[in-house]
Amino acid sequence: MATPFEAVLILDFGAQYTQLIARRIRELGVYCEIQPYSTEIKDIIALNPKGIILSGGPSSVYEDGAPHCSPQILDLRIPVLGICYGLQLISHFLSGRVEPSDRREYGAAKLKLSGESRLLAGLPPDFPVWMSHGDQVAVAPPGFKVTAATDNALGAVEDVGREIYGLQFHPEVAHTPDGKKILSNFVKGICGCKGDWSPASFIDMAVTRIREQVGDGRAVCGLSGGVDSAVAAALVAGAIGDRLTCIFVDNGLLRKNEFEKVLKSFADYSKLNVKGVAAGERFLTSLQEVADPEMKRKIIGREFIEVFQEEASKLGEVDFLVQGTLYPDVIESQSVKGPSAVIKSHHNVGGLPEKMKLRLVEPLRELFKDEVRAVGRELGLPDELIDRQPFPGPGLAVRILGPIDQNRVRLLQDADDIVREEIEGAGLYHQLWQAFAVLLPIQTVGVMGDQRTYEQVVAIRAVESLDGMTADWARLPFDVLESISRRIISEVRGVNRVVYDISSKPPSTIEWE
Ligand code: XMP
Question: What percent of the chain has pLDDT over 70?
Fold first, then answer.
């Protein structure tokens, strides 16, 4: 669908850096969308992009079954930039020669300019770039000028007349420090984008679209206490006002006092009509004696749907369900590689729309997480909602290993709250993707006073991450770990040992279950 913004389209050939290209272009204030390489030419024309970028990818253009987009892309009179595999594909289409490199190049290289270039305008005569390729363009297509090279390979080509450009290296990664200038030359200099993409302009567009979609219908939204559902709801409320009702369910597995805190934040915001439903007992009863993590998720998902349905049915006729789906979820589900294997079944409200015959409103489908935060700020949502660390839908259930009961929930809530206080006190909350406590299903021997104890173990997990897909354990200062441990053991009755999790994702995951 065409957007009211100037858009750049990225066709994805399966590179690990494709999302990063989109990030960089959006940082230039230009709206940018990723579509699979196989997108039909009519859909590309319908999007009306000001420029097209062909991404990198792991294949060889000349192999059987290698991903090829339609060569007609090069005849649309829309500027095209090929990056790595994208450049090789352009060369392949236009009678250049692509062959395996004598020496595979992976890592930093020095690029030297060889004459005038529109794409590389304003750059120094040589500069560092990041290479990652097994094939190379041995002979550029007729009509193309080679504008830069490394010691091993052709680095950049252009045919200014036809507005087709190519780079063998990756301008989107931090290891190409001048990469942003090159992308800016393409999207602003060559494609002529003005860069008018901003949270405020996004909100205007989203409100118009939501009004068109919902008409005079009614919508309901399940709030999780996290930023995505809050921003999605605030946008929809901006469009349809009190025809949106939000439901926030306490499943008894939230953090300490979180139900009350979140309801208060929403009450302070005042633009959302939020109904809090205290249903903790019901969830805990269904979870009795359940130890298997996926079983816990299924039960919580099922209970949630039931509670939500009961509440929604009290509202009378409802037509739409608002969800805070983000762009990485959308890309993942339509990626070149296909939907990735389900490691944990995260989407515990999946059955809801079909069951209730609701149509989905997903106003954040085009945004990355930090863009969602920027939109939330622009909408005036309170900081404590916007800057909150992610929290899983099944809540503490996947942090209490083994069966769950009210005592174990309380114990973990108390330990977790100490982690939060100490991390916030040390000024680390915003640097960490998540920091939390996990209750292990074992007891260990300790000594308190003159008494032998045999009590519970709490593990601390703190990770740094950009998107939750990969994560590194945080190198927390020892004195922060020391006060977390000392406080949990002395203040939380029933715990006599605290351990720190030093595993990264992959191969571990962030949550323990
Ligand atoms: P993992 O444990 O898969 O977590 O490394 C990645 C991110 O997802 C969150 N997570 C969940 N979120 N329902 C959710 O809504 C779930 O079942 C779930 N499991 C994990 C996790 O907190 C982390 O941010």
Answer: 95
